[in-house]
Design a protein that fits this description.
Elements: H1 2-21, E1 26-36, E2 39-44, E3 47-53, E4 56-57, H2 66-77, E5 81-89, E6 95-101, E7 104-105, H3 106-112, E8 117-118, H4 128-137, H5 153-159
Parallel strand pairs: 3-6
Antiparallel strand pairs: 1-2, 1-5, 2-3, 4-8, 5-6, 6-7
């Protein structure tokens, strides 16, 4: 019985180790697709990786400013070489990462341009809150919408279920 338990434990731990090794720390390649304002696809070594931008949340497609947020992300990254520093894998199997075009931090730039909210639930870089406050004061992007239209996407999703 103990031998069986140890075998199962060894198998489970080796599976966990193997799955962790499959998650890259950095993905570098060309952006070949934009799904929405916070999701893109990178092509690296003939393989496509779906990436969710870390620490931000953008309006949903059917939400005010949703298509504009997608356009802003596209202008920043589409068809460009990027580096994605992977932080996690989300429940949909997407890599969650901070994306860089050269030195430009795309999550930070999306917030600065008013195309994204800081996603407080997953926030690591607290300086993004200052960037968001600046965009809000300047009424850039989604901050120029009427207050009734300016609903954070996490609340919008909760209301649309």
């Amino acid at each position: 019985m103990i031998r069986l338990f140890l075998s199962v434990l060894l198998l489970a731990s080796s599976s966990l180790l193997f799955s962790q090794q499959l998650t890259p720390d950095v993905i570098q390649g060309k952006v070949v697709g934009i799904t929405d304002g916070d999701t893109l696809t990178i092509l690296m070594d003939s393989k496509q990786y779906k990436i969710r931008l870390a620490e931000i949340d953008t309006p949903e497609r059917n939400q005010p400013y949703g298509s504009k947020a997608k356009d802003v992300l596209s202008d920043l990254v589409f068809n460009k070489e990027v580096k994605a520093e992977v932080q996690d894998v989300d429940r949909y199997g997407r890599y969650v990462a901070r994306i860089y075009v050269g030195e430009l931090d795309v999550s930070r730039e999306m917030v600065r341009l008013g195309a994204a909210w800081v996603y407080r639930q997953y926030l690591r870089d607290k300086s993004l809150l200052e960037v968001e406050a600046g965009a809000k004061v300047a009424k850039r992007g989604l901050w120029s919408l009427q207050e009734a239209q300016n609903i954070p996407p996490w609340e919008w999703r909760r209301g649309s279920r």
